[in-house]
Specification:
The complex is a heterotetramer of chains A (about 400), B (about 450), C (about 100) and D (about 180).
Chain A (H helix, E strand, L loop, with lengths): L8 H5 L13 H4 L9 E5 L11 E7 L2 E8 L7 H5 L4 H9 L6 H16 L5 H30 L3 H21 L8 E2 L2 E2 L7 H23 L3 H7 L7 H7 L4 H5 L6 H4 L20 H24 L19 E9 L2 E9 L5 E7 L1 H6 L1 H6 L4 H11 L3 H5 L1
Antiparallel strand pairs in A: 1-2, 2-3, 4-5, 6-7, 7-8
Chain B lengths: L2 H45 L15 H10 L11 H21 L15 H10 L1 H11 L3 H32 L4 H10 L4 H4 L1 H14 L11 H4 L9 H26 L19 H17 L5 H32 L11 H28 L5 H31 L4 H32 L10
Helix pairs in contact in B: 1-2, 1-11, 1-14, 2-11, 3-4, 3-5, 3-11, 4-11, 5-6, 6-9, 6-15, 9-11, 9-15, 11-14, 12-13, 13-14, 15-16
Chain D lengths: L1 H22 L3 H21 L3 H25 L14 H25 L19 H10 L3 H22 L2 H7 L1
The chains are: A alpha+beta (about 400), B mainly alpha (about 450), C mainly alpha (about 100), D mainly alpha (about 180).
């Protein structure tokens, strides 16, 4: 029965809400209908198992059908962009890791390349190849976290643990390389601080060889499963025009059929040297996004395999002084992070500290699409759609 | 002697098996439920490439007790705006219903509380279905949106799937021709087949419906943790929450028992009519003893001395139980060869053996539940309702007719198995048709902006 | 051993309590529930007589009454929902559209 | 002995429950107490050897009808304070009821003194095995002698179902959809 319960928005936050108790003295004024036109406001989050952190979504429901949403963000706001104005360029580099903490290395790559562009230096080829390998591993790790949590949101318990098992291997590589697993701070402006360790290629190769088989395990569990298809197909459809209008990028855009990947369109690091495909979907629904990300993991694996074939010898640090003092000016540099286009806009006033750093976080912009995607769906779909957007609240709130 | 005492003694003499069973149900089922939880976690861990609880006791064997203690001493939180009376009452209803319905379950030919009611299976069904009053009332009383959404989902789901499950049960009841539990099992003995083989579709429908009735994945929408936090239990904590949990797991055992009684031959051992397989009656003792042997084998590999001791203790326990089985068997033999022992324990051996097989089958059934839970994603609410109303219920109705037809055919001299296969094929064809039809329907509906309301389903 | 009078007294008590509910309560849903009480009291009588005479007919009619109660509840609650949707009340004395 | 203990227990629960149904202010509480009463009545049925009715009462009444009630109470908001508008003759009705009950009780006690073991006070009803096996007997009766009423009852239920669906359906929404 539609609209089984009604409380107006103000009521939901006031002390009321017992649907049908004798305690309400304002029932007469409010004329509380439960049936009919009015909506139930459900506060989803900030403490909720599947809002991926501290996202709060106010859902306006009719029965279980979503009539509208309102995202409340900022619970994890730390003022990263403001902090940048009081740190030197090097000092700020670790902070960017804390934005998208699921894909810290990608953040670091974007920032370092942006500053390098500002300084007009280039990292040496060896550094760029190692950066590429680590970033692609990070992309796989990020997609694994996405897949596990997304499947968990839809109710499949097991893929999460399989995904974490593989991610663990990647994190071990990171740990061996730079000592940290999550917020790695692996790159430095101008190149790398650390040489790759002995057996780095072998580790990556072993992981990649295993990984094809492991992907097949997830595919076996999910892709052909009729419940999974039922839960994801035609859910949260976002077509190409909408994606472009909302600025959605990354797998969301590609699932809608737009073949846009900065790794191909504006190659950075050493992506121009490798052959890989850009997987695209057709419908732009949750299932397509799932397929696109699964395929992206396969492509990342191929990139890694190609890259470890020929890591050039040479220096790992470019010609960057101890004190970074870029000329006055501004720069925008963007990379294809696992979640979409990650851009850094840096304004320099020729001091050691940036005048302003502005981040274009993919999660934040993709989150805009939520309202459009969930309207008319059920509560359960909201969870699936939040999962498929692959947001990280550290990046949304910064 | 005092007449009152005599009355009481007489009462005890008549009802001691029933009383003991009652006490066992009330005292042991919670513990068993705790261990079912542990088993579930262990199985889940095994399927997910991890270890599961390992800290409390060797291999986490004491985990349920630790959990119970933790839940007991936890602060009892009652939400401020909740309806206190019903908030208090709801979990109790949930658990009492599950435990009461267990009273009529026959765990073996000798172990049943309500031994001779001639509506046995209906009693189990009806009383266990009262448990969801606890869910709906608890969801309402907690004064939380998540809770009430969970309660409403639960109501709609239970009403739908109880219909399908009831129709599936009718198929089996047609075959048995009685509602009495012991007579149902006897009918399976007399007809030389478990009813799952005579009405496979009904068995399958009951499996699905019972998963939905116990709110287990993939039908765990009322408590879907990723959507409704914990559904109707959101506001519950501590021991009240534990009561819900207990009720849920006890309910699993109840539906397992119903399925075992109706479809899997109850307490009958495999091939009960084949006499050269009579050695299977030894199997319970042997299996339990083998578990003991395995424990001893594992005991040597334990890293800590305490754990080794514990394993030995478990092994000794197994041996003791196996010995009881064996001793009773020996007594039975003595009896047969004329050595008279004054105790009349005749009913106990078949009783224990029956209980062993019965519990084994119930465990198998519950294992299927768990396996599905670890494997499948969750249905969405409208999909759940559609599955119930558009596929399972029509299929169950068709199946009732099919079973009736096959019985008529048999009465008219057609070989039973031929009739069974024919009707089952027909039902399966109907199932394929239903699924196809429903897929087309949903495909055309998904293009429309709004699908019909799901609660009305 | 209980005599029929005990059961009849119980039945009467339930019947009268149900009547009180029907007459005094304003909430239509509670009125419906009171009607269920009355039907229930009748059922006790029917089952009692079936027991006294050893004739199953009384139970058959009790079964019919349960079916009737189900029908009544379904339709009654349907009316209440429809009414509530239009007038947003379930109180009997506010259902006064015909009292003009 | 056991019989009368059971009877007084069930009867007491039923009557107290019924009284609470009528007096409690909260409709959900009323429903809960009605469930209690119905379950106690089911116990009485069991005592009267009507096993099938016992379980029918539990499954149909408690598991079906009462759930419907609770569902509707949850859907419909019932929380208008009741104290400012009360039925004027409540006290009168209650007095009448208590008077009738008292008169009945008095009559019973008087008659029991006067005619022990006769009429309404017969000690031995028909032998219990006359109704056993209950569900079989009931089914025979239902599907032979009372087949027509049975079918009429099923038609009644069907009509009620259709009527309930038609009435509860939200017309606005259906128009939107079509």
């Amino acid at each position: 029965m539609p609209g089984f319960a009604k409380t107006s928005a103000s009521k939901a936050v006031s002390k009321k809400g017992n649907l049908g108790n004798t305690l309400h003295d304002d029932a007469l004024q409010n004329n509380g209908t439960l049936l009919g036109a009015d909506e139930l406001v459900l506060n989803m989050g900030p403490q909720h198992p599947s809002t991926h952190g501290v996202l709060r979504v106010k859902l306006k429901l009719d029965g279980e059908r979503v009539r509208g949403t309102e995202c409340v963000i900022g619970y994890l706001h730390r003022g990263v962009e403001k902090i940048a104005e009081n740190r030197t360029y090097q000092q700020f580099a670790p902070y960017v890791d804390r934005m998208d903490y699921v894909a810290a290395i990608s953040n670091g790559l974007g920032y370092c390349e942006a500053v390098e562009k500002l300084l007009n230096v280039e990292a040496p080829p060896r550094a760029r190849v190692i950066r590429t390998i680590l970033t692609e591993l990070q992309r796989i790790a990020s997609h694994l976290v996405w897949l596990g949590t997304h499947a968990l949101d839809i109710g499949a318990l097991t893929p999460l643990f399989y995904c974490m098992r593989e991610r663990e291997e990647i994190l071990k590589v990171f740990e061996k390389y730079c000592g940290a697993r999550l917020t790695t701070h692996a790159f430095r402006i101008g190149g790398l601080q650390y040489e790759s360790y002995d057996g780095f290629e072998k580790d990556v190769e072993r992981f990649c060889n295993d990984f094809e088989r492991r992907i097949q395990e997830y595919v076996d569990l999910l892709t052909g499963n009729s419940i999974w298809i039922g839960r994801t197909r035609n859910v949260g459809v976002l077509n190409a025009a909408d994606c472009i209008a909302l600025g959605a990028s990354g797998p969301i855009l590609r699932a809608a059929g737009v073949k846009w990947d900065l790794r191909k369109a504006q190659p950075y690091a050493s992506y121009d040297q490798y052959k890989f495909e850009i997987p695209v979907g057709t419908n732009g629904d949750t299932y397509d996004r799932y397929m696109v990300r699964i395929e992206e993991m396969r492509q990342s694996r191929l990139i890694c395999l190609q890259a470890i074939e020929k890591i050039p010898e040479g220096a790992i640090m470019g010609k960057v002084g101890k004190v970074i003092k870029p000329p006055a000016g501004e720069i925008y540099h963007s990379i294809e992070a696992p979640k979409g286009i990650l851009g850094y806009y840096i304004v320099s006033d020729a001091t050691t500290q940036p005048y302003r750093v502005r981040v274009r976080p993919p999660s934040f912009i993709n989150l805009q699409a939520l309202d459009k995607m969930v309207r008319g769906h059920l509560v359960a779909d909201v969870v699936a759609i939040i999962g498929t957007l692959d947001i990280v609240l550290g990046e949304v709130d910064r | 002697m005092n007449p009152t005492v005599l009355t009481i003694l007489h009462f005890l003499q008549t009802w001691w098996v029933e009383l003991t069973c009652g006490v066992v149900i009330v005292a042991v089922v919670p513990l068993v439920a705790g261990y079912v939880v542990l088993l579930e976690r262990k199985l889940m861990a095994d399927m997910q490439a991890r270890l599961g609880p390992m800290r409390v006791g060797p291999h986490g064997l004491l985990q349920p007790i630790a959990d119970a203690v933790k839940l007991l001493i936890k602060e009892d939180i009652i939400p401020a705006e909740s309806d206190k009376f019903i908030f208090w009452l709801a979990p109790v209803i949930s658990m009492v219903a599950a435990l009461t319905s267990m009273g009529a379950v026959a765990f073996g030919p000798a172990f049943q509380v309500a031994r001779d009611i001639n509506i046995g299976i209906l009693f189990v069904l009806g009383v266990s279905s009262l448990g969801f009053l606890g869910i709906i009332l608890g969801g309402w009383a907690s004064n939380s949106h998540y809770s009430i959404l969970g309660a409403l989902r639960s109501t709609a789901q239970l009403v739908s799937y109880e219909t399908a499950g009831g129709l599936a049960i009718i198929s089996a009841l047609l075959l048995s021709g009685t509602l009495k539990i012991s007579a149902i099992v006897q009918a399976q003995y007399d007809q030389h087949a478990w009813f799952i083989f005579l009405a496979p579709v009904a068995g399958f429908i009951y499996l699905v419906a019972s998963i939905a009735e116990t709110n287990r994945a993939p039908f765990d929408l009322p408590e879907a943790e990723s959507e409704l936090v914990a559904g109707y239990m959101t506001e519950y904590s501590g021991f009240r929450w534990a009561l819900y949990f207990l009720g849920e797991y006890a309910n699993m055992i109840v539906v397992g028992s119903i399925a075992t009684t109706l479809f899997l031959g109850g307490w009958l051992r495999p091939f009960p009519n084949v006499h050269w397989l009579n050695w299977l009656d030894f199997l319970p003792a042997v299996i339990i003893a083998l578990v003991g042997v395995y424990c001893i084998y594992r005991a040597g590999k334990q890293p800590v001395k305490v754990q080794t001791g514990f394993m030995w203790a478990v092994a000794l326990g197994c041996f003791a139980v196996a010995f009881v089985f064996a001793a009773l068997w020996l007594l039975h033999l003595f009896h047969r060869f004329g050595v008279l022992i004054p105790l009349n324990l005749d009913f106990i051996l078949p009783g224990l053996n029956g209980a062993f097989w019965f519990l084994l089958k119930v465990s198998g059934y519950i294992y299927v539940f768990m396996w599905l839970r670890f494997t499948l994603p969750r249905y969405r609410f409208d999909q759940l309702m559609h599955l119930g109303w558009y596929i399972l219920i029509p299929l169950a109705i068709i199946n009732v007719f099919a079973v009736g037809i096959s019985m008529l055919l048999e009465a008219n001299g057609v070989n039973r198995w031929i009739g069974m296969v024919l009707t089952t094929v027909l039902v399966l064809a109907a199932a394929v048709f239903l699924v196809r039809w429903h897929d087309q329907r949903t495909e055309s509906a998904s293009t429309a902006s709004l699908t019909p309301d799901s609660y009305a389903g | 051993m209980m005599s029929p009078a005990h059961y009849l007294f119980l039945s009467l008590a339930l019947f009268l309590i149900g009547c009180v509910g029907v007459v005094t309560r304003r909430n239509v849903i509670v009125v419906l529930m009171s009607i269920e009480l009355i039907l229930n009291a009748v059922n006790i009588n029917l089952v009692l007589f079936s027991r006294i005479f050893g004739d199953v007919a009384g139970q058959v009619f009790a079964l019919f009454i349960i079916a009737d109660a189900a029908a009544e509840a379904a339709v009654g609650l349907g009316i209440i929902i429809a009414f509530f949707r239009n007038r947003e009340t379930v109180l009997a004395d506010e259902m006064d559209l015909l009292k003009w | 002995m056991l019989d009368s203990v059971l009877f007084y227990f069930f009867a007491g629960v039923a009557v107290i429950g019924a009284a609470l149904v009528v007096t409690s202010r909260n409709a959900i509480h009323s429903a809960v107490f009605l469930i209690t009463t119905l379950l106690a009545t089911a116990g009485i049925f069991l005592q009267l050897r009507a096993e099938f009715l016992f379980i029918a009462q539990i499954i149909l009444y408690v598991g079906g009808i009462m759930v419907l009630f609770i569902f509707v109470i949850m859907l419909v908001r019932l929380d208008v304070p009741l104290h400012h508008l009360r039925f004027r003759m409540k006290n009168l009705v209650v007095t009448v009821v208590i008077a009738v009950l008292g008169a009945e009780a008095g009559a019973i006690i008087y008659l029991a003194r006067k005619l022990p073991g006769q009429g309404l006070f017969i000690q031995n009803m028909a032998p219990p095995d006359k109704l056993a096996p209950n569900s079989e007997k009931l089914a025979e009766s239902l599907f032979s002698g009372y087949l027509l009423p049975f079918e009429i009852a099923s038609v009644l239920l069907l009509v009620a179902m259709v009527g309930a669906v038609v009435m509860a359906k939200n017309k606005k929404r259906t128009e939107e959809e079509s």
